[in-house]
Amino acid sequence: MWMYLGLLAALFLGLHNLCKKHAVQGNEVFPVLLGTISSGFLFIAAFYVFAVFYPDYALEKGYNFQNISWQTHGFIFIKSAIMASSWILAYQALKHLPITIVTPIRSAGPFFTFIGAIVIYKESPNLYQWIGFFLIIFSVLLYSQIGKKEGINFKRNKWIFAIIGATFLGASSGLYDKFLIQNLQLNPQTLQFWFCLYTMLILLVILTITWFPYAKKRKAFKFRWSIIAVGILLQAADYFYFKALQDPEALIMLLSAIKRSQILIAVVIGGLVFKEKNKRKKLIPLIGIMIGVFLILYSN
After folding, report:
1. CB 3.0-4.6 Å disulfide test: which of 10, 168, 181, 263 passes with 245?
2. What region does 125 belong to: left with phi over 0, alpha with psi -120 to 50, or beta?
3. Mean pLDDT of the chain
4. Closest listed residue to residue 233, CA positions, set 25, 21, 9
5. How far apart (Å, rounded) are the C-alpha atoms in residues 106 and 170?
6. How confident is the model at residue 30 (pLDDT cuts 50, 70, 90)?
7. Model's pTM, two decimal places?
8. Which ranges constitute the DSSP H helices of the chain?
């Protein structure tokens, strides 16, 4: 069941990435990020308010919110700091790079998670999973060669380093999620609520320094419907992902790989919507990534 929940998370993440590309095009990145987090928070906060006034009904339907200690709040704040840093780097990169380049690099996330799962959680892959792992790495390297044809030098372009940094931080957060869900016994909605709240506070501090004082930057910001859509789609994806992690048998390295199937939506539909170059050539490494994911998933 946790694998199917992971696929649902991937579906919502793929749609989330398409809306995110629309939201940041020609727009100020930080207020877009704050807008997406805020809309996601308001979405989950509606359930929180309902649970406060109708606790028995919420408990019956399975979306009650837990009372947690200050120490647990501290652990959630650490996740917020990690993901705020990851999103800032990712949004900046997405603004300056094609989605068909950004998404495949983000697909490197399972590599870091894969290694962390082995070292930290002692998860042990079999031979076919190792083959899938290296096939995905090779496919991502192939994407970098295609990227050069679009005028993107992977060694000199700072936005490439930004998206690699965002990917590493995102993978670290994924490993941390398993600790929060399984070790601290947090349910998905409790983690989502406080995580969004703390991330909003972090972004507000950043915007107070970098955006709010500058009238020219404020005027350059364009509100779009996709900002709200990004927030809601991300909350839906996170819910199914955290729900999958609640299963004691869930392997974080496999779940991380399953989430990468979002790349189908980003490369195929995104390439058509945003009319980016070399779509056919990008299908070759895309197939490589999907075979790698398949080997990781179905080799048990």
Report:
1. 181
2. beta
3. 84
4. 9
5. 9
6. confident
7. 0.82
8. 2-24, 29-53, 55-61, 70-96, 99-106, 109-120, 127-148, 158-178, 188-210, 215-220, 225-245, 252-259, 263-264, 270-273, 279-297
